Amino acid sequence: MSASAPGARLLLDELPGLDCGLCGFRTCAELAEAAAVKPELLTRCAQRALAPRPPSSPAPLGAGPCDSCALSVVPETRDWKDHLGREYDFVLQTFPEEPGPRETILPHNPQLTREMGIQKGDVLIGRPLGMSCGCPITHCGVVMSVDPRTGVIVWCVTGPLRARAEGFKDLGYYSAQAYEGLVTEARSELRIGARYWFLPRRCMLQWRHSGLINFLSRTPRGYQLRIEGLMIG
Amino acid sequence: MARIYLDNAASTAVDPRVLEEMLPYFRTSYGNASSLHEPGREGREAVEAARSRIATTLGASRPEEVIFTSGGTESNNLALKGVAFANRRKGRHIITTRIEHDSVLNSTSWLEGQGFEVTYLDVDEHGLVRAEALVSALRPETILVSVLHASNEIGTIEPIRELGRICTERGVPFHTDACQSFGKLPMDVARDPLGLVTLNAHKIYGPKGIGALYVRDTVRIEPWQHGGGHEFGLRSSTENVPGIVGFAKAAEIAHAEREGEMPRMLRLRDRILDQVLGTVPGAYLNGHRTLRLPTNVNLGFSGLEGEAITLQLRLDERGIAVATGSACSSHHENAPSHVLLAIGRDPIQARGALRVTLGRYNTEEEVERFLVELRTALGSLRPISSLMPGLAPALEVRG
Fold first, then answer.
1. Residue where one domain finishes, among candidates B194, B219, B254
2. Residue to substitute from B259, B385, B395, interface A, most A β-carbons within 10 A
3. ipTM score over 0.95, yes or no
4. In angstroms, rounded to a whole number, what is the distance separating the alpha carbons of residues A109 and A201?
């Protein structure tokens, strides 16, 4: 819709032409007509007032490609096979600033967390038993955080040297509930809500694991994932 | 602890002025508006006066273009099914969008089962329908286009005048669901290219159970509800006289006070948006930043989407009523929001939004208390990632 008076036509050029109605006028032309007589009405235009602001809507996590994110999809340039010759989709890397792979674990007796007074910085040993991620190897790691109410422990698996050097608390058996880490290369685009085969970078057996991605954030250093519903094989 | 109601897109408190005007039609003038005796005539006069009053707020020159219904859902059903069946010999193609209210989408789904073909237009990442998409979708056999004026979930305002013009130029009736925008954004059917408009009362401080469908006199439409031939044969049922009277009063108040009320809503909305988006790590906005209803805030919190139900409960414990899209928060819905999926959110994000909708009775003090309580509640949630304790996500999200 066009404005009729010359002054209004000039003002109309300054308006976005979206006819959103937020100013109280049906159309930008009607606002321009009114503002030609009463210029302060132009301040009612929410589009003019707000347009210069920086974007407030970050990209949704895990949706669509992103130039600034470091994930290379390399379908055929490497042999996506584990130690037993089975295919996998990506390698889960450790966060470089951390001492080892980050895992969320739950002692088979969660009360142990309180009874043993486990706290951040403690060195623990234990074996992941049964569901979900049964493994024949006892793991050693350092505690990053503890939830004494539920018994849930977040630790970084470090290997046995630290336990030998610093002493440790023995959890006995535990279940691995979640892995977190970075992915910089994958056989295909990764999607939240889907299950994948993956290889934890420091898995001593170099066996593939499988799990469901339930958190995915694109960062310049790779995709940050949280994987739950873990299984070996 | 005083309750703070921030779910005005779901329903609003009845304005005392509206209630006052309705009461005589419960107490004294309770006759059936179709009866010939005096109480009936009083009811009829009130109904027709209300029709004229609502027509005036819409800019309609003919009051009989306003058809009273039981609300927005019925109006949408009547618009879609009524126009589809009245025009089925001309064509069987209907166009709508992926972000409509369920009363539109479930009607079109039903129509598909009756042999109609429906095109669902995609929207962009803000929820906007593109005019080019509509032009591409229109066919010679298209008999109806339905695009909502403003989204009930994300508040995005659609370019209905442009879309309506495209349809009108091609002789296709254009319907818009204006339940969320009526009384908030200007509308003038005398000049706007709208064939049918869905309205309701309880979003504008009127009673529940009453709505209307504006039907331009050139639009061919069939009744969907049969009976005694009420509402010019388009919607049979004894008229809800108190509701109709209350609806008219609510529409008049909204129309008269919009100019002062909406700038205030806009300031409150932007206070919330600026505070949350500017200070809460990982907070993001669903919907368009500026082309959105002055009353609508729809937020997501990266890594905390799965905690939307906890967030709602924590706020509720503190006396603050907001809405979430969480599956577990609703007794009838177990799917992620189709609107949030349509704008590209993933299924977890599409379940995890927090919708805050402002209204006439909200104050600056309430908004400030909400912001404090929101921050406290967010700090008590369990982020999905162990790297995000205490709302300090080590994330570097980039577009």
1. B254
2. B385
3. no
4. 28
